[in-house]
Amino acid sequence: QVQLVESGGGLVQAGGSLRLSCPVSGRTATTYIMGWFRQAPGKERDFVAAINRSGASTYYADSVKGRFTISRDNAKNTVYLQMNSLKPEDTAVYYCAAAEGNPYSSSRYYQSSWYNYWGQGTQVTVSS
Length: 128
Prior knowledge:
- By secondary structure, the chain is mostly beta strands.
- It is 0% helix and 46% strand.
- It has strands spanning 3-4, 10-13, 18-25, 33-39, 45-51, 58-60, 68-73, 78-83, 92-99, 117-118, 122-127.
- The strands form two sheets. Strands 2, 4, 5, 6, 9, 10 and 11 form a seven-stranded mixed β-sheet that branches.
- It starts with a strand and ends with a strand.
- 34% of the residues are buried.
- The model has no long low-confidence stretch (mean pLDDT 95).
């Protein structure tokens, strides 16, 4: 059974930074394409970033491009989300997700329904 456990969330002032981590346990991380999603109160879960198995290709929501960076360390079975220049609108619960399939279209990376496994989420709160 695959387990994803996010960590690194917290309270930060606008303009600050946080780094989220998501270790993959149960199977080798290279089995999965990894993604980060977020959900604010009363809103749907939105795509944030994704990374392919090798780490060579990354994908970002327009709202975070240039501020967030997704990366993975396959030797440590862990995926990261470095978040810089945080804004109050980034406040949400952030979820790590893993997908087993092959993305014949890059659009798959952006679709929460394509991901098979999810973590429990970590709260990120950005104060103004």
